Amino acid sequence: MGDMFASTCDKKNMMTSLAKIRERRHFTFMHRLFTIVGFACLSLSAIAQETPPTEIPAPELDGPIIDVPENPTPKSPELPAIEPETQNPVAEAGKDLTVRSEASRQEMLKELFANLKVAPDAESGNMVAEEIWAVFLQSGSASIDFALLRGIAAQTQGDQKLARRMFDHVTRLQPEFAEGWSRSGRLAIEEGDVNRAVSDISQSLTLEPRHFYSLWMLGNILEKLGKQDNAYEAYTEAFKLYPEHKEIKERMERLKEIALGKAL
Hints:
Layout: H1 2-6, H2 11-21, H3 27-46, H4 89-92, H5 102-117, H6 122-136, H7 142-156, H8 160-173, H9 178-191, H10 194-207, H11 212-224, H12 228-241, H13 246-263
């Protein structure tokens, strides 16, 4: 297992990513986020010599909490469906959420995230979240969108090999597409490659800091690495974006006492 974590988080790559972030909005949060990721990187290199943290009950947010595997051999666990499954997420959203330009994408997301933040209950929040997914899933290229949806379908059916090929195709040809990196990170978790999961999730958040599911996955990883205070920060950022999600609230509340205790 030690070999699996030995090469974690190349410093040059981290600095390159940080330089990109400085050119974007939300720098204060992203600077804090990379501090959190840095703790994860240090923990990954040390965890090979440590006893894994106590098992944590597994809530779900469109996927499982992360298990840091004792055996790095990829597994094929049964997972809940990756939402949305539809081949036409724009039509399923019930209104025109077609991304016609980057400006239209940002305008739609700004309105949708404002609605998500003030959703009065979980059902309303879920409806808005589905509309956000409909926008997230559009890269601006029909062929890239097809490859992404094919990868999602393959992953849902347990075909990790095909899913990896599709997601690698997406991230190679469209490196500015946040959803491609997020999906690749989720698959890396299934494959038992925690190094890659952290790297891909970080890239997703560099491109789209509001990606609440990537924040959720990052919190899962940090929690499993025993970094509960840093996990709490990731969950808190997800909660600010999606306050009516039951599992986000539960994880944040569960770690609140630990995080505040360390702060004191």
